[in-house]
Amino acid sequence: MSLKNIYFVANWKMHGSINSSHLVKKIRNFSNKNAKLGKSKIILCVPYLFISLFKNILKNSSIKLGAQNVSNVPEDYGAYTGSISPRMLKDAGIKYIILGHSELREKGENNNSIKKKIGNSVKSNLNIILCVGESYSTYKTKKSIKFIKSQLQVLTKKTIKNTIIAYEPIWSIGTGKIPSEQYLNKTFDYLTQYCKKKYSLKPKILYGGSVNENNINVLKNIYNCSGFLIGGASLKYKSFTNLIKNYYK
Ligand code: PEP
Residue whose CA is closest, atom 1 of ligand 1? Predict the structure, then answer.
């Protein structure tokens, strides 16, 4: 069994309730019992509401908490109704933040705003999980690389150091479809070379899009892949933990 340092990032999206503390306790116990998983990084990106409740449950665990968005204003506090700043997240116990998810880009989130959010979050010492990925028509017309390159323009020499890139083809999210191994290897190679050339560093890159306990056997072969961003399969104990177990089989 490989003890490679692998990220399993759960993106709960708009799911969960106070009762989800049972699920979080079970995942914590699973992680604590499996010493073999000691080198895995399990990160639960949950709705803001549950951060302090889950932080308490996870206090004796290596599992970290993440959030799924943040305000793009530079201030830590201010008259911004309905907003949450990176500083507030940091103080609440958040270590990671998902930015640029396609579900937010679809609602108008753009590179300009994502870049501000990344800069502000890095100032508050948060780690960024930056989602990039193309639509089905971009994929079909073989314009994926050009498209992904445009999404990477939100990064700078400073912010890349705190950033994990999550490659999530939009046509794969929630559809049960995953790209071919060959296509993934090519895309991961592009992302790796891009960062090496532009920033002289080897980036951490996750794959996201319909990852589950069955296809993890194929996905774990992606070259240069540091882990996975997991939506649907992270919402149930069995599907999430079987996926992790199967990675190490
Ligand atoms: C996601 O939206 O980040 C995601 C990976 O979703 P799913 O695993 O459900 O495709």
Answer: 231
State pTM to two decimals.
0.96
Q: What is the mean pLDDT of residues 235-241?
A: 98
pLDDT score of 125 more than 90: yes
CATH fold of the domain at 7-247: TIM Barrel (3.20.20)
Q: Which residues are catalytic?
A: 101, 168
Write down the domain spans for the chain: 7-247
Q: Nearest C-alpha to atom 4 of ligand 1 is from which residue? A: 231
Helices (H) and strands (E) in the chain, counts: 10, 8
Residue 36 pLDDT: 63
pLDDT digits (tens, 9 = 90+) for 10-67: 999 999 999 999 999 999 999 998 866 667 899 999 999 999 999 999 998 999 999 9
Comparing C-alpha atoms, which of 138, 201, 113, 123 is closest to residue 165? 201
Q: Measuring from each residue's beta carbon to the nearest atom of ligand 1, which residues come in under 6 Å?
A: 11, 168, 173-174, 208-211, 229-233
Long-range contacts of 217-223 (CB under 8 A, 24+ apart): 217/246, 217/249, 218/178, 218/181, 219/178, 219/184, 220/247, 221/181, 222/181, 222/184, 222/185, 222/188, 223/185, 223/188, 223/189
pLDDT digits (tens, 9 = 90+) for 69-108: 999 999 999 999 999 999 999 999 999 999 999 999 999 9
Using CA positions, which residue lies closest to atom 8 of ligand 1? 231
